From TrEMBL:
Species whose genome carries this gene: Gossypium barbadense (Sea Island cotton)
Protein family per UniProt: Belongs to the glycosyl hydrolase 28 family.
SMART domains: PbH1
Protein name: Pectate lyase superfamily protein domain-containing protein
Signal peptide: none
Gene3D superfamilies the record matches: Single-stranded right-handed beta-helix, Pectin lyase-like (2.160.20.10)
Keywords: Glycosidase, Hydrolase
Classification via InterPro entries: GH28_Enzymes (IPR051801), Glyco_hydro_28 (IPR000743), PbH1 (IPR006626), Pectin_lyas_fold (IPR012334), Pectin_lyase_fold/virulence (IPR011050)
Record GO biological process: carbohydrate metabolic process
């Protein structure tokens, strides 16, 4: 009977991995959203923009985008930002436009925080992520848009987040800090060849979106900058993240889908998320799912990832009261160096928006495949800790090779309330994930 259970576990693991490779992730980023050629082109200088780093350009950006929105040129319009430093307050984009930053162009957020507009909380969160009530609008914002591109020649979008970080540290925030770029309820978004720097809060946040491509971007923030996640696909589908470098103060990429009872009620999952060829460092996680997963997260592939000088390599996290699901997750071809914990899958991470969450709303985690993961200078190899009344199932480990600080011996794992299989090295979680070293993929 035990042998049959082992065989079933292995077959389920193999099928999950094969299904992902065969059906889920063959579309490249360029196939999700084609790059548009814009027939109409205007420059921010046509609307009085001045790139001296001192002049406030809010009026110029808003007038340029108003013109794009209302003239509606066939094929859309490209807004060109020439070299220079363009100081501005936050502004909204519009459909069928390209925001193009030339080499040497910097769009810089004003530090006059009192001028920042407020927007309603996201319905899947029920309140601001940091503070009750509304939240500050992102620096560059879009809601209900189609066919929008932010690109260029590696120009920079600078959120000047230091003043916001200090407000957070000092407990002076009235509302949740602004993201650097956020798209809501939008479709057909491309973000490429731009440097994002010093975001007040999360850097790039597509929420309730579909068909989003983020590639060839660089995202930078100090390691002590609070909650400066790199890219957070949130209740979104068909998102492709490729060929990027991220070094921030929080998770490099974190897939989310709403917070406790609000996310459960909103009920919009994140699905078909592809993350490829991302390199970076963070005091928190390299690749994360959660912890806000109340709408569900499924069909996620992360491959060819390099993580160094980080807290956790791969972190899949949820909590009692979250509800929702995490299923069909594949992480493959990962190298990590100098991390505290290589792999962490846990059901007791993350806070709650209020005390109204349902303690009986237990998440379920099923079908997680971690394959071909190698690391050096890993203080702790990993832990997989499910929930007593909702054990994690079909957790499949294959070719996990994480070396400690002083030699090749892998540090010990800690596991509970989990079932699945470990195939080939190392012998992990022996009581619940038996080693089947004779079996190969």
């Amino acid at each position: 009977m035990f042998r049959i259970q082992l065989l079933v576990s292995v077959l389920l693991c193999c099928f999950t991995f094969w299904f992902h490779i065969s059906f889920g992730y063959l579309i490249t980023c360029s196939g999700i959203v084609p790059m548009r050629y814009r027939n109409d082109k205007v420059s921010i200088t046509d609307f009085g923009g001045v790139g001296d780093g001192k002049t406030l350009n809010t009026k110029a950006f808003r007038e340029a985008i108003y013109r794009i929105q209302h003239l509606r040129r066939r094929g859309g319009t490209l807004l060109y930002v020439p070299p220079g430093v363009y100081l501005t307050e936050s502004f909204n984009l519009t459909s069928h436009m390209t925001l193009y930053l030339a080499r040497g162009a910097v769009i810089k957020a004003t530090q006059d925080t009192w001028t920042w507009p407020l927007v309603a909380p996201l319905p899947s969160y029920g309140r601001g992520r940091e503070r009750p009530g509304g939240r500050y609008m992102s620096f560059i914002h879009g809601d209900g848009l189609r066919d929008v591109v932010i690109t260029g020649e590696n120009g920079t979008i600078d959120g000047q987040g230091g003043i916001w970080w200090n407000m957070w540290r000092q407990g002076n925030l009235q509302f949740t800090r602004p993201n650097l770029v956020e798209f809501m309820n939008s479709r057909g978004i491309i973000i490429s060849n731009v440097i994002f720097k010093n975001s007040p809060f999360w850097n790039i946040h597509p929420v309730y979106c579909s068909n989003v491509v983020i590639r060839y971007v660089t995202i930078l923030a100090p390691t002590d900058s609070p909650n400066t996640d790199g890219i957070d696909p949130d209740s979104s589908s068909n998102v492709c993240i490729e060929d990027s470098f991220i070094s921030t103060g929080d998770d490099l990429v974190a897939v989310k889908s709403g917070w406790d009872e609000y996310g459960i009620a909103y009920g919009r999952p994140s699905s078909h998320i592809t993350i490829r060829r991302v390199t970076g460092s963070s005091p928190f996680a390299g690749i994360a799912v959660g912890s806000e997963t109340s709408g569900g997260v499924e069909h996620v592939l992360a491959e060819n990832i390099v993580i160094y000088n980080s807290g956790i390599g791969v972190n899949i996290k949820t909590n009692i009261g979250r509800g929702g699901f995490i299923k069909n997750i594949t992480v493959s071809q990962v190298f990590m160096e100098n991390v505290r914990t290589g792999i962490k899958i846990t059901g007791d991470t993350g806070d709650h928006p209020d005390n109204q969450f349902n303690p009986n709303a237990l998440p379920y985690v099923k079908g997680v495949t971690l394959k071909n993961i190698w690391g050096v200078k890993v203080q702790k190899a990993g832990s997989i800790q499910g929930l007593k009344n909702a054990p994690f199932t079909n957790i499949c480990l294959s070719k996990i090779n994480l070396h400690g600080m002083t030699g090749p011996r892998s540090p010990p794992w800690k596991c509970s309330d989990v079932s699945g299989a470990a195939i080939e090295e190392p012998p992990t979680c022996s009581s619940t994930l038996p080693l089947l070293s004779s079996l190969l993929w």
